[in-house]
Design brief:
The protein is α+β, with helices and mostly antiparallel strands. Helix content is 23%, strand content 30%. It has 2 helices and 5 strands, in the order E-E-H-E-E-H-E. The radius of gyration is 15 Å and the shape is globular.
């Protein structure tokens, strides 16, 4: 919303994450993670990394929070099968609920 009260619908802050000079689409990674049973929702974003410039962080909403270690292993197996090695998230955060802002964005 701007200072005049007009609301603008926008997409991701960044559509591409650059990891070690390679361009990565967050949407591709999200599709793989969402295919894992017990995963309710997820978001992918780039976070600062000393070595690569950016690293991939997955925030994952799960049905059974007490099984997050098992679900993380399942996610990694699916990512290894379906994604190039440099597209696999380096960091994970598991949450009970992904917060959606009033704009409808994660």
């Amino acid at each position: 919303m701007d200072e005049d009260g007009f609301i603008y619908i926008v997409a991701r802050k960044k559509e591409i994450i650059k990891v070690g000079g390679k361009r990565i689409s967050p949407k591709e990674i999200e599709e793989v993670i969402l295919s894992v049973p017990l995963v309710v929702d997820c978001t992918i974003k780039g976070v600062y990394d000393d070595l690569l410039g950016e690293a991939i962080k997955a925030t994952v909403e799960v049905e059974l929070f007490n099984k997050k270690d098992h679900i993380r292993n399942e996610i990694l197996q699916q990512c290894k099968k379906r994604l190039s090695l440099y597209k696999i998230p380096q960091k994970f955060e598991f949450v009970d609920k992904i917060v959606i802002k009033s704009t409808g964005k994660k």
